Here is the input.
Amino acid sequence: MCGIVRFWAPEPGLRGQNALPALMKLAGAIAHRDPNSDGSWYDSKTGIALAQRRLSILNLGPASEQPMVSAPHRYVITYNEENNHLELRAVLRAKEQRPN
Here is the structure.
């Protein structure tokens, strides 16, 4: 099971030098849940931080590392891709096969 950590630090106290240690401490608290992969992202302008611990079962290549950052670096996302993925896949395939 994946673990996701996020915080928003609107006050300057958690920004800069204090933000990354705080993020790593939070991510370390869930390290036992997901031993295979971890990643983090922090934006010093907004004070937004994301981290994830991931049990790598699906999508094992480097393109699946998270948090994911879009090519122009405008969007960042982290998510749990493996919850009920088989059920969701079946629903989407059924929708693809229906005529419009």
